[in-house]
Amino acid sequence: MSDQSAGTERASLSDGEGGRTRLFEGEPKTVHLSLEAGESIPRHQHPDRDIVFHLLSGAVDLTLGDETLSLTAGEVVRFDGEQDISPAATADSEALLVLASA
């Protein structure tokens, strides 16, 4: 997935096969997420993580705890991974997530 040269890592979003693809080994965990319209990921948590969710394309309803944010392409959200999280695509969507140790 990634190409490493002189301490620099490089990856392409096209390296993935759809779904969830981890782009680099180690920290911070960096994931390319691809969801088709109507597809969602069940509620889950990422304890001890701060998360940055950058919606690259499409539209996603991102449920964080008891709140749902309707995101459109280009929006970026940062949140605490201790809460319940569930993204649901309302259109074919791609996002880049960075999960950093809190």
Automatic annotation (TrEMBL):
Biased composition (Basic and acidic residues): 17-27
Record Gene3D superfamilies: Jelly Rolls
Superkingdom per UniProt: Archaea
InterPro entries: Cupin_2 (IPR013096), RmlC-like_jellyroll (IPR014710), RmlC_Cupin_sf (IPR011051)
SUPFAM superfamilies in alphabetical order: RmlC-like cupins
Residues annotated as domain Cupin type-2: 33-95
Residue ranges of the region described as Disordered: 1-27
Name of a matching Pfam family: Cupin_2
Protein name (record): Cupin domain-containing protein
UniProt source species: Haloarcula salina
